[in-house]
Amino acid sequence: xxxxxxxxxxxxxxxxxxxxxxxxxxxxxxxxxxxxxxxxxxxxxxxxxxxxxxxxxxxxxxxxxxxxxxxxxxxxxxxxxxxxxxxxxxxxxxxxxxxxxxxxxxxxxxxxxxxxxxxxxxxxxxxxxxxxxxxxxxxxxxxxxxxxxxxxxxxxxxxxxxxxxxxxxxxxxxxxxxxxxxxxxxxxxxxxxxxxxxxxxxxxxxxxxxxxxxx
Amino acid sequence: xxxxxxxxxxxxxxxxxxxxxxxxxxxxxxxxxxxxxxxxxxxxxxxxxxxxxxxxxxxxxxxxxxxxxxxxxxxxxxxxxxxxxxxxxxxxxxxxxxxxxxxxxxxxxxxxxxxxxxxxxxxxxxxxxxxxxxxxxxxxxxxxxxxxxxxxxxxxxxxxxxxxxxxxxxxxxxxxxxxxxxxxxxxxxxxxxxxxxxxxxxxxxxxxxxxxxxx
DNA sequence: TCAAATATTGAACGACCGTTCAAATCCGGT
DNA sequence: ACCGGATTTGAACGGTCGTTCAATATTTGA
Lengths: 215, 215
Hints:
The structure is a homodimer of 215-residue chains. The first copy, chain A, is an all-alpha fold and 215 residues long.
């Protein structure tokens, strides 16, 4: 019997995977609203119209649900950010789309708010797993800023602090955004992008800082 | 017996008030780290080196502890913001100090991180009480932005979205700031202030928008 | 159609939760 | 030294928590 330690066989049917995703959707919303510890397995089961016991067919424990919420959202935004990097050579254009896309994920895709979820409830390896992805995303954002500064398209700024400011402004959306509000995702995204691109605009026009050594 | 509905007499000795504040300090840190529902009365009592039962001598229930955490932090920042408004006539200078002070409260005064605490666990009147204060603070920030735009010191922007971006960048600090990190409160504050003041700088120099009607 | 595979139930478990309160302890003022 | 109010204890309460699992229901594939 190959590969049988705890689980006899990896579950992988489309039916199984679909319900697993549905549970994550429900869980993200609940965790955001009432916190991880404040959400019971019964709460999640009720929203699924199932008993809480059935959840253990899909996840080994409650913490793993939170873990998968984080991983799913981060993998998604990492993929999106990778696409942005591939499409845009100019750092200022890349930053603009990065902001717009992040806001869109945060607002439109319900599970995007997982990006603003608490890490405190994750322990050991699972925490490390999530933090690694979060760091990778932050590194991509910082890289865009760094290149912009180097090319003279952005004024010289503390890249780390600037990245935190951008991430904070966007992730904080989860705290105040309500559907049927005045501003939609792209209105918010465009406004935030304008804000930070102007904040980073170099003193005069065009590129001015030490001309790039390569090309 | 005057004023005896539930509590025979209002407790007000300096000893009592000091310990009550100490409990709030402990609670803010715990709530930030493990969430409201994830923090037990036993946890708070342990940090106080008391039994959980003793906490009920100071607060009628757990939710009231969270409530007072919020109210204390908001009242403090409201007072600070009032001072800023009194000291600065020019909106750009007011905004700079507002940002610096908010960051300072967030970083230095441990209980400042209460400003980034969850509201979801508060119910009914207590939620309303906190939201009223939060709205008052947001209104002061928006007013500074509005006056800046009106005077032509800021470019015309969506004041509400801009205020959210600023608050998000600052409140998000609670998520990443660690003591003994590289940047101190005033480094962060100055950088964030620079960022947003440049983001709001009008197209050319000085005031240009429709000249203010008064003066 | 029916057996196998997949999915869900419902009861039970020990642990810990917030809260209460009479009794015990602490401690400043005299 | 001691009184009396301020403070803390420790046990107990009903309730809910996450988790387990044998039994059962549902769906799938031949």
